[in-house]
Amino acid sequence: MIALKGSDHMRNYVSKALEWFSTRDNVTYAIAIAAFVMSVYNFVVNIIQHRQHIEVELSGIFRPTNVKGASDVVNLKILNCSYSPVIISRITISSSLGNGDYGSYRRKLLQIDLNAKGSSVSCEQWFSDRLPVRIDGKSFADILIVPSDSTIRIPTGEKLTVKLYSSKKLITKKITVTSISAYKLLSQCRAPEN
Questions:
Q1: Under a CB-based contact definition with an 8 Å cutoff, are residues 110 and 125 in contact?
Q2: Distances in Å between the alpha carbon of 116 and those of 111, 119, 125, 150, 192?
Q3: pTM of the prediction?
Q4: How far apart (Å, rounded) are the C-alpha atoms in residues 108 and 149?
Q5: What is the pLDDT, as a whole number, of residue 69?
Q6: Does 77 score more than 90 pLDDT?
Q7: For residues 79 and 150, is the Cβ–Cβ distance under 8 A?
């Protein structure tokens, strides 16, 4: 008996819905509501997909010893957590020792010559990266950058202000320097360019 009452109730509901949709104005109204809901959904999805979300990690800082005119090398990992690509055109780093532009030039950072029995077998070289750099959506760039001048301005244990000038907006991050590595360790963070 209960099952019959439930099915009668459902039949009654369906017949009322069909009766409501039999009127042309009601169908137009339902289509307009569906179109509005779809446009709001598409608008929200578009905002989410084109919203810029960039994370910056300081992978390491390398400092030369007894090399005249050499400067610190900054190893940054820039993660593009958004769906759309982004172009980083300029990076500035500020500390208590001053601020400067990084990534304006490509420089040779390290060269290791491998010798066997007095003759050169191979030569491995590492170079800094030059901006701009394009980072696709949901991807990252692992870059080695040097300042435009040869000034050392990164002290240990201090918070740096890193500014990334992107194609969409200025991104400012505070990053603490925990340690500074020797130049020779550059060979462990990237394969050589021959």
A1: yes
A2: 16, 6, 18, 34, 19
A3: 0.71
A4: 14
A5: 67
A6: yes
A7: no
